[in-house]
Design goal:
Blueprint lengths: L1 H4 L3 E3 L8 H14 L2 E5 L5 H29 L16 E8 L12 H29 L5 H7 L5 E9 L9 E6 L5 E6 L6 E5 L2 E4 L7 E5 L1 H6 L9 E4 L6 E9 L5 E2 L15 E2 H11 L4 H9 L17
Parallel strand pairs: 1-2
Antiparallel strand pairs: 2-9, 3-4, 4-11, 5-10, 6-9, 6-11, 7-8, 7-10, 12-13
The site of nickel (II) ion (NI) has 3 residues, from loops.
């Protein structure tokens, strides 16, 4: 597909040289028109990434695969005779880092895996904060503005969703993860270097986010759309299943703290802002029931509390 070729890949090392302006412009264009970009030369050591990928795959085999197969059995998904639209073909577990780590409460992780995930998360946290400052620069906001908004009284929420998308005998019958926009701030995804599956919606077409060894995929959540008053967009994405190969992905969500007050930045808001202002946790409570619905009614509902019931929340899903 010709369209894949244009997917924005940003070499962060170029920020230190002559091509800084073009690189900043590429990031800005990606934030305005894709909601996604992929970064290389981001400073995370490749041996750490390789180790995290290897241990995540081993952990799946040892501690998650059986549970996934049991889930298929209990939900009657072994034969997939018709399209399934209310379940995702994924195996996941969640790590929280901020405001408090739960890394030591997760069962079945080796000490080695725990240590690697702690190091990985700390580096991604720093990278997320650096990226937020690059966004501030492109948006004409003072350095530290987004970090400060996300801080609330307890600091940001930062967590990691570790996923495996096992091979699926009938990919056309079920998605690995149904289409959604992410609720939070900025998301950093380390994905399988071989098995693809992530797609984003651009101008009505689903476009593959290609695996690229040692890269990190960045995307923007609903909060950045609100704070930028729509200059930047959170974009619908999904994971398709594959007949061959188990896909690993590790998505880290750098989000506002639960009591952070979210509103369009005054320098980006016109006289009348189209976007609501709210406390982040209230948005998350709404999102948990309507994650797989379009974001626009969520924004409307946050403007007008009485509209929440009209969104037909389904059972709450676990989210960041
Ligand atoms: C998510 C997500 C994509 C992936 O968890 O919100 O979009 O590739 N994940 O796992
Ligand atoms: Ni997502």
């Amino acid at each position: 597909m010709e369209k894949n070729i244009k997917f924005p890949v940003v070499d962060l090392s170029k920020l230190n040289g002559e091509e800084r302006d073009q690189t900043m412009a590429l990031i800005n264009d990606a934030c305005e028109n894709w909601g996604f970009f992929e970064i290389v030369n981001h400073g995370l050591p490749y041996d750490l990434l390789d180790n995290v990928e290897k241990m995540t795959k081993e952990h799946y085999k040892k501690s998650m695969e059986q549970k996934f197969n049991d889930m298929l059995k209990s939900k009657g998904l072994e034969n997939l005779e018709r399209e399934v639209e209310d379940v995702d073909w994924e195996s996941t577990f969640y790590l929280r880092h901020l405001p408090q780590s739960n890394l030591h409460d997760i069962p079945d992780m080796s000490d080695e895996y725990r240590t690697a995930m702690k190091d990985f998360a700390k580096r991604l946290e720093n990278l997320a904060e650096d990226l937020l400052d690059l966004l501030c620069e492109n948006l004409g906001l003072e350095k530290g503005y987004l970090k400060k908004v996300f801080h609330g009284t307890k600091g940001p929420t930062f967590g990691t969703k570790v996923s495996n998308y096992p091979s699926c005998p009938k990919p056309e019958m079920i998605k690995g993860l149904r289409a959604h926009t992410d609720a939070g701030g900025i998301i950093l995804l380390f994905q399988d270097d071989k098995v693809s599956g992530l797609q984003l919606l651009k101008d009505g077409d689903w476009i593959d986010v290609p695996p690229l060894n040692h890269s990190i995929v960045i995307n923007l959540g609903d909060q950045l759309e609100v704070i930028t008053n729509g200059k930047y967009k959170s974009v619908m994405h999904r994971v398709v299943t594959q007949e061959e190969g188990n896909r690993m992905s590790i998505a880290s969500f750098y989000n506002p703290g639960s009591d952070a007050e979210i509103a369009p930045a005054s320098s980006l808001a016109g006289k009348e802002s189209e976007y609501p202002s709210f406390v982040f946790d209230d948005y998350m409570k709404l999102y948990a029931g309507v994650k797989f619905q379009p974001k626009e009614p969520r924004f409307e509902a946050m403007k007008n509390g009485s509209a929440v019931a009209d969104l037909n929340p389904t059972a709450a899903v676990e989210t960041f």
